[in-house]
Amino acid sequence: MADDNEREAMDYDVVVVGAGPAGLSAAIRLKQLAAEAGVEISVAVVEKGSEVGAHILSGAVIDPRALNELIPDWKEKGAPLETPVKHDRFVALGPQGDITIPMFPMPKFMHNHGNYIASLANVCRWLATEAEALGVEIYPGMAASEVVYTEDGAVKGIVAGVFGIGKDGERKGDYQPGLELHSKYTFIAEGVRGSLAKEIQAKYDLTKGKEPQKFGIGLKEVWQVPDEVFESGLVQHTVGWPLDDNTGGGSFMYHFGDNYVAIGFVVHLNYRNPWLSPFDEFQRLKHHPAIRRYLEGGKRIAYGARAITEGGLQSVPKLSFPGGVLIGCSAGFVNLPRIKGSHNAMKTGMLAAEAAFAAIQAGRGGDDLVEYEAAYQSSWVRKELHIVRNAKPLWSRLGTWVGGAVVMADLIVSNMTGGFSFFGTLKHGKTDAASTGQAKDYKPIVYPKPDGVLSFDKLSSVFLSATNHEEDQPAHLRLGDPSVPIEVNLPRYGEPARLYCPAGVYEVLYDEAGANPRFQINAQNCVHCKTCDIKDPSQNIRWTTPEGGGGPNYPNM
Fold first, then answer.
1. Is residue 296 part of a domain?
2. Of 35, 142, 206, 475, whose CB has the highest number of CB atoms within 10 Å?
């Protein structure tokens, strides 16, 4: 670690950690307000990816509601929301067949007409150009690795851009101590399960009185397919096979752009069976006739994975703390039934920007920006989450088929009445880690060998993500107790890290006699999905940010 006096410090009005939809929308809104008021405001955005968009992965069908508010002329400015939704389909899958479920009884917000299929990574790249044109300073390849606090315990800013520390913790010849970026308010927009957000939530007890956050893992591939199977504007979602009734999740498939098909699979991380591999379930899904017919003759050109917040209203923490705020998926605003969160992320960034701008103009800084929390409470984001608040707990309690029917009935009633539910507001209960069952209670799953045409292995998939890390650096995947994987997780849970990780990071290796197991971490493969930090049943794995620029380099996810 560097001493404080080794680092240069730079002062800004607002520092934003993360150049995703929430962080960039916040930065743009701050500059818009300053221009309207004829004043100056300094805004910096730091991004751990090698470029803006490098770590952005989403379905994505985008509701333009927040973008309409932020940049009303986005169409004229060339925002890459290129393909309007033309055909909405919801399908229940069995092992061989499928049933199309009518869309007309579903609440209007479940329909995707008026939304756009796009690459969220490319949307963020476009937002970054808009932000920079307004004077926002954006620093890609600069990982925010530490929080800086004032003497009285408020957030003062962050440390970013530390480079050149070797595996042994010693400084290398190219060592750079990083910069301290100080601010009146620090916006935490790291996305799901960010390391700074975890620290801040714990320090200020922001989750007190809230339900535990719930998560899913989303795996996604982009294919380019022949004309004969391409249906521009098609949106298809499925539930059912290959997951059993007690395991929540489903698939998405979106046709957009130049014969691109975004195909993905989400598994809720409160699944019980420790032998389940979300990656292999995804590969199996693509062989189903309802999916395969859209991929045959095509070529897989991209792969990635990331965790998704699913807790909804009950799990949103306190949003402000002394010196800063949580925005976007750092707080968790995904609407699970809609499978959408980018519009809510953008809006919360805008709400935080408006609160911070007013406070800074009033001469404030470093205090608890409670006006942001108040703005959220009266916003359409909260109203949207309130209507769907029981979808996740009902699905978890009742299973896919009964739960799905009850959820849909609840959504219809809640939507018609502005939020009334016969169930009140249900709780989530356990964390996803605590939901993991014991290996002895479940039968191991034997997955088919990938055929290299429709289904693939993890390593060839990671190759498509262009993931790379500087090898001579401290491991960013840290074990609280190195003995736990073999002495606790292996006998009790079959060491599920080797299965839930979508990138082959974790392995259990044996000697030639098939004895003396040891736990190996291949941190170079990590695509920064953070599933391990969430699902490890012993909560022994901690994901931290590696050197800036490391991780995946998604071109169009």
1. yes
2. 142
Angle made by CA atoms 320, 323, 327, in degrees to the nearest 5: 40
Secondary structure of residue 262 in the 3-state scheme: strand
Does 349 lie in the same domain as 204? Answer: yes
Residues 478-531: tens digit of each pLDDT: 999 999 999 999 999 999 999 999 999 999 999 999 999 999 999 999 999 999
Q: What are 315's two structure tokens?
A: 């799990």
- Region 76-83: what's the mean pLDDT? 96
Three-class DSSP category at 46? strand
What is the three-class DSSP state of 391?
helix
**Pair 390, 410: CB distance under 8 Å:** yes
Contacts (Cβ under 8 Å, ≥6 apart) of 225: 259, 260, 261, 294, 295, 297, 298, 299
45 closest CA partner among 27, 30, 21, 70: 27
H helix or E strand, kind and range, residue 386? helix 380-387
Instruction: Determine if the pTM surpasses 0.85.
Output: yes
| Cβ contact 115:62 at 8 Å | yes
Q: How far apart are CA 252 and CA 219, in angstroms?
A: 10
Q: Which of 42, 140, 66 is nearest to 356 (CA)?
A: 42
Instruction: For residues 14 and 208, give the distance between their C-alpha atoms in angstroms, rounded to a whole number.
Output: 26
Q: Assign 212 a pLDDT band (cuts: 50, 70, 90).
A: very high
Q: Are 46 and 142 in contact (CB under 8 A)?
A: yes
Considering the domain architecture, whether residues 219 and 292 belong to the same structural domain is answered as: yes
In angstroms and rounded to an integer, the radius of gyration of the C-alpha atoms of the chain is 23
Specify the number of domains making up the chain: 3
Query: What is the residue whose two structure tokens read 């069908």?
Result: 61
Residue with tokens 């949207």: 384
Select from 364, 399, 417 the last residue of a domain: 417
Residue 538 falls within a domain, yes or no? yes
Question: Across residues 362-389, what is the average pLDDT?
Answer: 98
Residue-wise pLDDT for 518-547, tens only, equals 999 999 999 999 999 999 999 999 999 999
Confidence band (pLDDT; 50, 70, 90) for 6?
Answer: confident
Do you find a cis peptide bond into 66, omega within 30 degrees of 0? no
